[in-house]
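Work Package 3 committed the consortium to producing structural models of liganded targets before the mid-term review. Because experimental data for this complex are still outstanding, the team generated a predictive model from sequence and the ligand definition alone, so that downstream docking and mutagenesis planning could proceed in parallel. The input record is reproduced below exactly as it was submitted to the modelling pipeline, together with the SMILES string for flavin mononucleotide.
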Amino acid sequence: MNILASIGSYRKQGNTARSVELIAARMQALAAQHTIPLEFETLFLSDLELHPCRGCRACFYHGEAACPLHDAVPRLRAKMEAADALLLASPVYVDDVSGLIKIWIDRLAYLCHRPALAGKAAYLLATVGGSGTRHALRTMSAGLLTWGYHLVGQTGVKMGALATAEDLPRYQPEAERVAQRLFRAVAQQQALQPSFYSLLAFRVQQLAWQHESPGSVDTTYWEAQGW
Ligand SMILES: Cc1cc2nc3c(=O)[nH]c(=O)nc-3n(C[C@H](O)[C@H](O)[C@H](O)COP(=O)(O)O)c2cc1C
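The resulting structure, written out as tokens with the ligand in place, is given here.
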């Protein structure tokens, strides 16, 4: 089993990183219990060179290789392809995802036209000081659902400004729940049984992009997939 956790915070000892650590530890325990080898990679988006989308639409019209920005996005995409599941984790900044997460979502917007991650599972995590996580989780799910991911679940955790090591046991039960759900989803290949909602999203994308124009990147992609 191969899980990629992607963290959209600069704080490596911050609430989001610590929550992901708790989940990773529980997943390792589950994997050992079920004698399933687990590779859990944690990626800090802050360590990568990521430039904001310029809106040129080259990826839509000419394919992602035509993007004029040459940075870590293709490497990130390759990691997503290699993993069975993605744990996407963002702190809430002013009621939404962090800028790092939003840059990443925008840079992969071409996947809304060509949902290449179908068959993979994803879990969404947002940490927040004291208000809500609904808007941030909604931003992340809008991206991932249209990229083809099977959304296993989502969790918002209220953690204040900065949780200390002593506070962490309080978040252990939630981490256990997230780990159980993600582990089970991957072990049981739940992503191969899409929900009604994801089928609906797929159908809307199919209607929009399959017959965009003969020879276009999107039409060629849908034909090549046999969709
Ligand atoms: C720029 C910024 C904006 C924030 N906006 C909110 C907010 O709208 N509501 C809230 O309750 N907490 C807010 N917070 C607090 C963070 O959501 C919270 O501390 C989060 O868990 C930090 O995660 P991190 O330690 O991984 O960076 C904000 C923090 C920052 C730095």
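Reviewers should note the following from the model. The mean pLDDT is 96. These observations will guide the Year 2 experiments.
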